[in-house]
Amino acid sequence: MTVTIKDVAKRAGVSPSTVSRVISNHPRISEETSLRVRKVMDEIGYHPNMMAKSLVSRTTSTIAVILPRPADELFQNLFFSEVIRGIVTQSTRSGYDLLMATGTTEREELETVTRLVRGRRVDGILLLYSRANDPVIAMLKEADFPFAIIGRNEDYPDILTIDNDNVQASYDATRHLISQGHERIGFVSGPPNLIVSRDRLAGYTKAVREARLPVRSDWIVEGEFLQESGYRAMSLLMGLPERPTALVVVDDVVTFGILCGLVELGYSVPKDIALVSFNNIVFSELATPPISSIDIGIYQLGYTASQELIRFIQHEHPSHALRHIIPHRLVVRESSLRRS
Amino acid sequence: MTVTIKDVAKRAGVSPSTVSRVISNHPRISEETSLRVRKVMDEIGYHPNMMAKSLVSRTTSTIAVILPRPADELFQNLFFSEVIRGIVTQSTRSGYDLLMATGTTEREELETVTRLVRGRRVDGILLLYSRANDPVIAMLKEADFPFAIIGRNEDYPDILTIDNDNVQASYDATRHLISQGHERIGFVSGPPNLIVSRDRLAGYTKAVREARLPVRSDWIVEGEFLQESGYRAMSLLMGLPERPTALVVVDDVVTFGILCGLVELGYSVPKDIALVSFNNIVFSELATPPISSIDIGIYQLGYTASQELIRFIQHEHPSHALRHIIPHRLVVRESSLRRS
DNA sequence: CTGAAAGCGCTTACAG
DNA sequence: CTGAAAGCGCTTACAG
């Protein structure tokens, strides 16, 4: 039924070895033979069996991206499609297929990745999350298998990472509020165990300190990457006897929650409270008022991650850097402008 | 280096055939042997080579999902992550891996799918879009390869499809506006070549006709699934000498554009114009005012599509239905409520 | 420049 | 219940 290399060989009057060499553009094959073989391949509709090729070559031309478990980091949904689009675009361009995998529990996740790695199912792994003490990362290191992570990881200094400079980004956001004349600036953070939360908090603190403004612990609220979290943070902050006049918010979705709450309570943005946020998702622009946000280059993050992972796979010993920083950019909109 | 079935066999004192049978739970293997072999597998860390297995079994335990090209149907981004999550959850649960592929041009798209199909890279294909006269579908039919499409396709009656009843959904949305006392209802549509646009228009028309209200062509505007489109539609409609008092809008993102435009021009929703939309994306709830929307069960769409495709793959001749309808549900919010 | 042969790691009739 | 053998479709030294 299926057309194999043998069928091509027979029809072209050569050996299977020769056909194989034609396919892989072996240099020592005559132009003439090559042309004849290619013609036959077209005629009888030959397509190489990827599985057979993989088995003998020990490569798969496939990378796997591991999604965060639904339970955690649901916020990823927001940039999920953008990162994936970046990854799939670049991997396709490099001739690699993309496998998506996930697990519902930590154990399942580890099992899945182990199966892919040990079963030689893929050539590299891309982790779409960054947790501390991750057994998956430990396993990948142990197996000496090519992988990259989007985000930063403090446990290992020598792994391939693609990330933003979140400290600097948050510093920039805070500086912007200061330049608008704010002196009482709060910070609404995400889960404290995530590195991204910590980095953004650090940048905020740095900017506030530098400007000799107060860093007050009651103006720093932790939560999840959910709108409900924003709502709660807002209630807390607005209930204080001394309130901030501006907030740096760790994620656009959280800002949405804050905004809704403020509107409900009859406050006005940016007059009563100014907001700057992160990620610059499409809807930041569509909010009322439009939200100022740090664009972190989500697509770029995915594109670069795929590129660097594949580069790593192809040159056994990577000569280039392990840590890659995607530039960010503050997009100023109405939510942070001081009305004069 | 890698542990193979032979290593296990040697260590367990059996033949490779026996090990293979243990792995596949062959019934005629003694409990004792099975246990011994499994123990050895654990001890030396055996993981089956998926490629070798695929080569001989002619199955891959993998399905591919084909993304719409960036150029078209960008709106898919919005439900993209939800559909994918549904698909990946279900396929993982069924023991299938998920491959993602796409192409930048129609030709590239066809080539990619052909390579996957003819190269026996996957066991089934899931198309995430529904176009008329699609050469990819023609090829899949011709090759008699298992595939399913999310959406409806009129070219072939006998293919596996997973869709909403968009006519009914739109009918329901329109009825809701009528029940709120509206008699002048317009429709903002998507690209006319997409079946989803046509179906939703049909449902709207049906409801309006049935209520003996006017169906006016100047109240029906076509566009893209983009906010800019909504903005433009709004300008057009509000510039009419006789304006509608309510709109059914084909997609939430378009509604965002409409809403922004209305706010800019000083109109109020729902007082001046009521809105009902489709998809019920997270941000519908967060808009000011919150947008009434038809929840089309995006996750469910993906979950069911994966389930039916895999079922199809596993039973050569499917005894069950080919067309699957995911139920929808109107979520009423402020944007469509008539203030009394 | 090309071919015959061995082998990648598994499965599966066939035979016992 | 288990083993020896053939084979899935390819690649790649080795030899010429």
From TrEMBL, chains A, B:
Coiled coil: none annotated. The lineage of its organism: Bacteria, Bacillati, Bacillota, Bacilli, Bacillales. InterPro entries: Cro/C1-type_HTH, HTH_LacI, LacI/GalR-like_sensor, Lambda_DNA-bd_dom_sf, Peripla_BP_I. GO terms for molecular function: DNA-binding transcription factor activity; transcription cis-regulatory region binding. Residues 3-57 form the HTH lacI-type domain. Keywords: DNA-binding, Transcription, Transcription regulation. The keyword Cell membrane does not apply. This is LacI family transcriptional regulator. It comes from the Bacteria. Residues 4-47 form the HTH cro/C1-type domain. The keyword Transmembrane does not apply. It comes from Paenibacillus antri. Pfam families: LacI, Peripla_BP_3.
